[in-house]
Protein 1
Amino acid sequence: MTIPGRLGPVLSALDAERRRGRGAEALATLLLLAATVGAPWILSAASLNDLGQAILFGLFAIGFNILFKYSGLLSFGHAAFFGVAAYGEALLLQAFPAAPVPLLILAAASGTGVLGVLLGHVCVRRTGAYFSMTTLAIGAFFYTIAFKWHAVTGGTDGLGGFMPAALVLLPGWRLANPSIAQTYELSVVFLIPVALAAWLLLERSPFGNAVQLVCQNEERAAFLGYDTHRVKLANYGLAAFIAGIAGALWAIANGFVSTDSIDLTLSTTVIIMTFIGGSQWFWGPLLGSTIYIFGSDRLSAFTQHWQLWMGLVFILLVLVFPRGVAGLPSMLFARLIGRND
Amino acid sequence: MLRIDQLAARYGRSQVLHGVTLTCGPGEVVCLLGRNGVGKSTTLKSIMGIAGISGGDISFGDEVITGLPPHAVARRGIGYVPEERLIFPDLSVAENLSMGGWRGFGQPARAHFDRVLAVFPRLGGKLRQRGRTLSGGEQQMLAIGRALMAEPRLLLVDEPTEGLAPVIVQALERTLKALAESGIAVLVVESKLAVARRIADRITVMAKGETVFDGTPDTLEACRDVRRQYLEV
Amino acid sequence: MTDNPLLALHGISKSFGAGPVLNDLSLAIRSGERRGLIGPNGAGKTTLINIMTGRYRPDAGRIQYRGQDITSLPPHRRNRLGIGRSFQILSLFGQASVGENIRGALLRKHGLGTTAFRRLGHLEQIFAESEQIAALVGLLPVLTERVDKLPYGMQRRLDIALVLAQEPELIILDEPAAGLSAAETRDLIDLLKTIMGDRTLILVEHDMDVVYALADRITVLDYGRVLTEGTPAEVNADPEVRRIYLGEAH
């Protein structure tokens, strides 16, 4: 638990909340939300597509960061949950084309969450390198199932053609041939409330407080009466559920699911996104995914070696700005007042 | 003879010391007293080259040792017992002691072990036990014993009596006095005035990063203001 | 043996490989008692505390709390039964503030420790209570300071505050005066005398001033067994105790 640069500000967010007025923050949040929902009227189709992906992968990365920032656990296999939910959603859509889509998304994500709790029971007993190695193994395990179980997952060919002729949003409200803008709005309408609920849970509720206490000093927490195993398990299940929401939406937005929704590359991409944005802030991974997606899109227009450049950016960021882009303001501020961090 | 002159030093991000002056000569026990946080530990760390020195001088014998790295300081016959003990948790008691007397080759002479075990007989029964399985007080004894293994000319001890049973504290006080009598210079950081009264030849009092008093225990006894202002007694 | 002791240990043995640390030890603490636990370094005091509080399982023997067998209960369950303990080596939530540390203890006491359905910022009662407790141990001025930046004496006080915040029935303190100056130790004694009420206390300490000030009964441990037990005056006068532990003074 000694990963540098991961520590939050000195004043607790809570004490700060009590002291600061809520006005400015709420206004900024509302403006941002309005901009997000209103994006189809502002952005081009290509940018809208990127933004939709950025938000979707941003939620996925937030799910990863729920484990990293709050429980201090670095997972190398989080794509397993994303992928299981994506395949699950695809299969559910195939089986129940007339069922309301929100219900199916919740079903896929909940199943993933339960899977997370079952796996977590084994994983969260260990920390540090042991935990990370276990997640690596779990990721590889699920990848192998996706790869080999051709009958269900389509193997490397992938799974397609599961989208019904018309999506049933609610009983009586159907959406046929959704445009990019419509798919975007559908995703956003799901992703944003989930993200906000997760934020409330981890940053403003006793549960999130407990997760952080257990991470800081598990022994003392236990002696104060916290069932630390259960707390870690619940957080792991939550992280899986969040990744599951993103995965389920991915199946719908993409119309196609293949092994690159569950492979190691995806697991590591989500880590990179988180660190680019800054892991010590709840919304950092979303910032990171936006930079990554827009950045790689623009880069790939210039060069086919965009991944090389992305990798170099990542290394640079980790060396020079260990707190990610989100950490820039506080780093600059510290430099200004003459302190060495 | 240890001489510190107007020492200024930082530890971590804060400037902890800005004017420490003291001496400690062979054959004497000097106690460094003061409230928690005034910089007593940082003074010892500065001598050992662990703190960042920003001003002043430290000399030992006729050599200036300001800012020398820790291993160089240790080689000049200065032994250090930190407040946190820092014994090697996975080595046995015997191995910890050997490390203390390590000269780069072979094992330390038997006589060194015997001397340490005479001071701390309890360690004798636990020679093969691993450091991490010792109790807090036993670890303290081991840390001091380890420093003694190198036969230092100057011994720096940070809060030696903390966490020790009264009967061991008394034995330790006798040991420190005996070490001084055998010619070693002993500089002890202590927070308990009672202990200092019993063992010190001289007492130096610190407050807020500088030395504010230097004298014998009797002189300190007479200066009620100093005691009240800097030692809360 | 007293009837209906609050905490009873029967035949506790524990070894860590090299040899037994606790050897067929039995002990009974009555409700409302203030028991001091002293003994040479390595006698097994902290191991005994760890077994009482569930950090270690004994190799043999039973522990009963209010008549209920708790030998295999994990630490968090024992805490919920009403046993609180402090730590010889400071164990705090270093990156959090003083207030947050205390709130963590309080939330759990009120059964709100892991609830998802409350806003932390709206739990005014908890904030008020945490300020009271901070004031009680003299830490109100540093309520929002980060704990690992505080001086040692204050961290020690916070350690005690966390135990007190949960108002346990049985308070176990493991060397609470370790590293404290003479004045800080006196403050600690005053604080404990004030808040103890009719709670039960088990106190492990080397500072005999603290033990004599607080304990009405003392158990002396040596080599993992109970050497003797008695009032402070009796224990103080016992020649064997003097030989192995107290020495000449006191």
Protein 2
Amino acid sequence: MDRKQTNNDLLTVKGLTKYFETRAGFLEKPTLVRAVDGVDLKVGHKDVLGLVGESGCGKSTMGRSILRLIEPTDGEIIFDSEDVMKADSRKLRSLKRRMQIIFQDPFSSLNPRKRVIDTVGEPLIIHEIAKRRDLRDRVVSILEKVGLSSDSLYRYPHEFSGGQRQRIGIARALAVEPVFIVADEPLSALDVSIQAQIINLLQDLQRSLGISFLFISHDLKVVRYFSERVAVMYLGIIVETGLTEDIFTNPKHPYTEALLSAIPIPDPSTKRKRIILPGDVPNPSQIPSGCRFHPRCPYRFDPCDKFRPKTTDIKGGHLVECHLRG
Amino acid sequence: METLLSIQDLKTYFYTGDGPVKAIDGLSFDLIKGTVFGLVGESGCGKSVTALSIMRILPPAGKAVSGRIFFKGEDLLSKTEPEMRRIRGAEISMIFQEPIASLNPLFTIGYQIEEAILSHLKMGRREAKKRVVELLKAVGMPSPEIRAKDYPHQLSGGMCQRAMIAMAIACEPSLIIADEPTTALDVTIQAQILDLLRKIREESGTSMIMITHDLGIIAETADSVAVMYTGRIVESTDTKTIFRDPRHPYTRGLLDSLPRGRGEKLIAIPGMVPKPSELPEGCKFSTRCRYVIEECQRSEPVLREFSSGHWVRCIRAEEIAKL
């Protein structure tokens, strides 16, 4: 199938689900929110998989479930030939040395009471990578990698700008020398000119250190730029996945197509047909029958509201879940 | 070409414990009737403060200390508060970034739109109620009669933004200021709202100021555009020219920062926007500029007409295209 899909995949996820129970009120019956509803995906060595979708589609839940930062309801996660779901807390800790996360909001994801040396150095101590007396030098060399100087060491997060804080967040993730990083909207809180700096940094790190990424973003331009392959998520499932260029130049799923046509292009001379989807981004506690996308789909026909489409491989690992295009 | 709004040398300062912060420092632009004027820049460049200054709804610490804002030939800065109240919502209305936060959570959206109508138009309550439903229908709200009775928290972000737009067009204003109207929305919902704004403009000929950080939105909505940096306009011209032939290094930097396709390293603007209290002497962009020369740091360049209708605040504008 996919050229990346060999026996030595770094990460293999099968049938991952995460359900939440929520209550509208104290006496109300709980309803089930199917945030992630049976997702398969693979990330190879030195691979970047972009995960796109709109708010509430489950992309962040997905990223966190893979690292077991939230406990998945069901599914299988194999990382570097080890079963993440079955790992006990000791095993999990050693796994987390190899898999890390970068969060979206650099303002709330750093502990405001910790200096940079503590934030970046703590994982080194926890994982017994560095001794206390070597800590400073280790942290300085990590900070250099992300473009921060050693005078940042004893400063607190509030003394930094958004872009610099995101660099600290990246440094913290890099400290334990992971082979896999979940980057959960790492750019969306940043201004355009700062975004470009951080993309360049992530790209450099990815290439020089050979780290694999699950790159979660709603910004399709950034995903196209950074990812080897792309998975498009809608209401807890992946509706289309394939090589980045295939997805962007030849999208098959009507949702992918609409999503791509909705991006405003910074070039006033391009005129194109925009597909405007009706309705709102649906709520994962009320998942439509059949194909989940059918209420908003411009091409829906007979089977769409009755049966869920099967995933079809159109061409060399370009997978799509659609009655019409599959 | 009739000028609807003309801002002349506006200065808006914020008085803080550490002295005045010059949020807008000498801003001028003209909005031609029936067109969309885009204001683009990064956080803190003063684009939202411009909107608040026009509407005269600055927070207590802020004050438009000098300059003029001519709207239909009259200076808004010399209007009394009761006079402004008759203009806001009726002549000029505003759409804010956070639709859910900008609506009053204690009243239904129908009631809030109704109030906007009743405070400006001579209309009975029953008639106003009918108008609310018409408006909600016009902005594409599903089942408008039912939605009119909903509170903001019962609606999605996209629907709240539709309600805000219904309120903004309720009195058929001549100018709508849209301050990042789609930033808080998902991309498919953003497409719906931009499409709606385009329809409103086509049908009613309303003029608009479109404030955004997204150059893509500028390209698709604005007729002319001003790029702002540290409370000043650094470049201003028609939309086509800004993308085809940008002459200010900051505009060029913003365009270069956008990922296009795959692979090539992005040309990022180094450093970050300086704090208002730490602005450099001379050109305010000189600390981050790729093309900086000694002269740039000596005195601040003026916004000059580089070619007809193309204004640039850079002494090297002529050479920039070749550098």
